[in-house]
Records
---
Amino acid sequence: MASDNDLTSMTVSLPTAQKDYVKEQATASGCSTPSEYIRRLIHADQKAREQEVLERRILEGLDSPARQMSNEDWKDVRATLKAKLGKRQKAQ
């Protein structure tokens, strides 16, 4: 099974000015290669999109009608969080 760290190649056509810019920015930002610089840009974009989704979900929750949480509701929340934390700890 492939992991997120397995690298593959992709050819991208850029005008000379953009190619030079990428090379300059890679060096200026401490990246060892233009590929590393591009990966960082993509990673930053992914994080920004995830943040947008999270903010949208928070706003949806704030706009939803409020209701009193029961003891059973809190038990479900705790169980869900414990399960997620357990999976995260096993993955590390």
---
Amino acid sequence: MKQAQRLKSVRYDIRGPVLRRAQELEAAGHRILKLNLGNPAPWGMSTPDPIMADVVQNLTAAQGYSDARGIYSARVAVAQYYQSRGVTEVQPDDVMLGNGVSELISMTMQALIDTGDEVLVPSPDYPLWTGTVTLCGGRPVHYRCDENNGWMPDLEHMAAQITPNTRAMVIINPNNPTGAVYAKETLLGMLDLARKHGLMVLADEIYDKIVFDGAQHCTAAALAPDVPVISMGGLSKTYRAAGFRSGWLAMSGFTAHDTEYVDGLQLLANMRLCPNVPAQHAVQTALGGYQSIERLIEPGGRLYEQRTHAWEGITSIPGVECVRPDGALYLFARLDPAVHKIRDDEQLIIDLLEQQNLLLSHGTGFNLDTPDHLRMVFLAPTDVLDDAINRLGTFLSTYRQ
């Protein structure tokens, strides 16, 4: 049987050939150290007990379909969350729950894009964005994020990519894979471009509470109440509930002229019947209760210390540089081309896997156009991170392509 032609140009490398090779090695008896995915549970970062208790308590009420948009209490909680972040006009009817942000990305794109439409996507990006635009028949147009400026989006380059076919702008903040937390001035510049050219803004803010060293996350929708913005978040990272597949979107800045798009999004929500009902009962408690993430991201907290420790370790490897991440869960390290002459970074990651049983992610898998970066997750304890960094350093000391 042949693969659908529309899949030929879709890539999702972080779960592609490298992961399949890792699975083959595991099946052959090798023990692989996996620092390729932002999955908290394998590293003992469990979902907070009150969230688990609410899901269990409501299981008997979660046996049937819910409203296609999600249960009312969860939508109220999401609306109130964004109101507290300065998006004051958001109401429960502006909120839709999904089976993770991934499903909502697909739905928002399917409702928006016709064949040939263009969407501005950052480079590097979380590759689901690029893949979904392509799968919907659109054309992802990548705007440059400047590593020499802390991975901030290059507004001049972004403006130059806008054409009459551009429909939307994707903002990933805090950014995966770079860990950049965008300055307010940068966001205002991006939103001004969206306003000037009549673009919808799709704001992926799944890491909004995972910020370090006093970095401030600004909710994009709060800075531009007159621009149509879809803000996205979920339980997987901040609340360490990746397996719940519980995400949400909130629409703001929409007017009566946008009713057709909103109706299309509702149609898609109806077609999937409803999001996972048991996990929806976790949302109200997660957003309204004690925010346990705060003790993890402050000095002395686990995520803070692991971030700092891993960054210091990886930058001690000769020929390896890394902008210290201000947010999210990743190090996006650069291999100095003068020291490490890499032509194929996917092959580098496969060779690292086979020689050191260490699984990382290659930079071009995040739609970066140069093969000189890799991503490491810092969710593991510091002794495991030390082991990984030692393996990487040993590998790079002799590796040649």
---
Amino acid sequence: MIPSELPTRRYAYFVVASLFAVSAFGQADRFLFGLMIEPIKAELGLSDTSMGLLAGFAFAVFYTVLGIPIARWADRGTRRSIIALGLFFWSLMTISCGLAQNLWQMALARVGVGVGEAAGAPPGHSLLMDYFPPERRARVIGLHAMGGSLGLIAALLIGGWVAEHYGWRTAFLAAGLPGLALALLIRLTVREPVRGAFDPPATRVEPASIREVFAFLLRLPSYWHLTLAGSLHSFAGIGAASWNAVFLMRVHGFGIAEAGATLALLNASFSMVAIGISGFIADALGRRDVRWYQWLPALGGILHVPPALAFLLYPDAAVAIWFLPVAAFFGGFWAGPSITMAVSLAKPQMRATASALLLLVMNLIGLGFGPSAVGIMNDALAPRFGDEAVRYSLLLIGVTSLWGCAHNWVAARHLRRDLDAKAA
């Protein structure tokens, strides 16, 4: 692309669609494992603690730790090529999950998925910031995040059906193979935009050192509070996403395909809608007062908790599942506005790193501790509650999103001043 040339709107939205697909494959490959916990546990003879660690830490540690060096690479290198390479590698590792014969082989495959996915979101967020002006970024980030929800829906619906009819190993193979073709498409069709194309002309876009990035972000309280908020929302949300299918199977007697379809249609689909529209709402309200980028996640988090608890506590499954859409809808309000602000608070040459730092903290707490905490609590509570233990484990982690809402509120208090500091 010629440096002075800006992308057409049509092509910019083609890039959004391409990264939407990358996000979809990432979430599908990441969360398919949660639906497969019961058959994998039975075949490999593992405990809930082991399954929680495979769902959480085996993926999250390498995903979060490698996110920083890969983001530094993205702040200097060609972002579309980094995304394509990461997608190709994590797709291969997803296929490897279906070939694993024991705990350690599965752990290595999950680590590989995490390594590859570390090259997905931060370079993607940075890329989108250079295709759209500030007033349209929250909706675009929301659309990008919707891809993850669509991937989760596909994993639950298609993965559940494939697992029930052809086995869990075939489900992993079916999830990984299409990603290899998408990686090639991304590499051949997505163009690298000019960094800072929609930022003020005086904005410096030369690479910043890691010390400069940390020094700059440490001066922004709103960045760290929204990061903590996202971490706590993620802890509750990912913990639930990884074990809700198990809850339906153990407590209510659902089959794997029935549990997957229920969660896809009544949970993930409503979360996808919320993630998409929350970006549009945040952009509309943010034009009046930028603090709405954090007030909206706080409001959604508060409204999410009562129906989420009702789903877990109501004894009749035929009624309980109808609390899911309400919980999922409000629970999806935090992601788009928060990620947009985290990246917008950074300067153009720092954006991938700022995104990676957000994801490092958020995913280490949410993706690492969330599923693992549920698995550990399941084994601890099982002697007293048996199959009901998963209900109480999910209840305990669910209320932590209220703590996250408090950090959203504090972040909103600092947001105007921190954006002014960034502009200065």
---
Amino acid sequence: MVSMRTAETFSKAIGVDHLVNQTNLTGPGPQIVVSPNVDTLYSVAVLDLRRGPEMLTVPAIQNRYYVYQFLDMFTQSFAYVGTRATAGRAGSWVVAAPGWHGQVPTGDSVIRSSTPVVFLLGRFLVFGETDLPATRAMMAQVRLAPLNGAPSLGQSHSRPNGTESTATLPATQLGLGAARGSPQNVAQAGAAFFDELGDDLAVNPPTTSADRSELDRFASLGVGPGRHPAANGTSTRRAALARGVSEGAAQVLRAVASTSHGVNGWVEHLDVGRYSSNFLVRAEIAQTGWGSNIPQEAVYINSSRDGHGDPYSGSRSYVMRFPAGSLPPAKAFWSLTAYGPDRFLVANAEDRYSIGSHTPRLQTNPDGSLDLYLQATLPSAHTSNWLPIPTDEFTLTMRIYLPLPPVLLGRYRLPPVEPTDP
């Protein structure tokens, strides 16, 4: 439901089967996707493959990191095009719904989706504000078009929220009908959660044996594709369904809280992006980092407590010291981002929300170590190494894109974030 609500939210803004490019780096604007990346420009498209296959055409891109991630409606990252997956080569990829058996142009590749609705999420690394025009120009060369029919190219035109589109077809929506809440509050639907789930499953039935087996357990309660157990059930059943939603949401929150004490205050998941039967982790990531990549593409390491185990507070100042030779091992880039406790960005006067390997003028110490200074107010020194933090509670996320083996094998450890005030 989180994925379908996210897809529906975007389809209402940008339409369906339209590739829309972000023109400015993400800031504390509309709160749609939790833990947004602020180091890359996004490309977004909601694909409704019930209308037929779509073809993504990408030029050769060798001088910067980029990725197009394909997410099904069960939050599984089922395919990639980009620096790692396709070596940045030029090509066209036909994205087809389950069961499609049509003809593909010679030389093109086929990506078979596991659900008819697909979320396409692109990311292009930006080397600072001065690099934005070059990044935009490169993104504008990427095309999304129907496999059979007139290409939806045309001139780029403005879209809401700092994006532009490479499509000129009239906007359409997924046509799911009833009003739906935000992706972050699915539990507030109560027993009606299962009616909405029935509508979603009618469009995107489960494709893995693990998902089908789990769903079969609830068939006796009237839960399943196209079914509405709350609307059609007795008051006793509705109460039981509502209780199940409440208890399930509490279980997810407990899972999030239970991972708040990791090594040096940092918690990492190396089992995200593709979940198999790990349903609780999938629900946890949907709540805290929807759209996460598989570890080979990016690893996300989160922290809500300092090196002493105390919750972060914007009333304090902190330093994060990387000893010489211990920076995050990344083939692409690494970055540290500060969020509010809800994992959305919080506005600051500097309009600066991350710091990392591509940050201009980072200064190392004479011994080769690197200090990052985290505080709400401008420091008297070390401004090039300063990450502004919210004035109240906050959380941190370290991103390591194209991580090297020490990260993927769980051997790399981030240093603690230490308070510098009494």
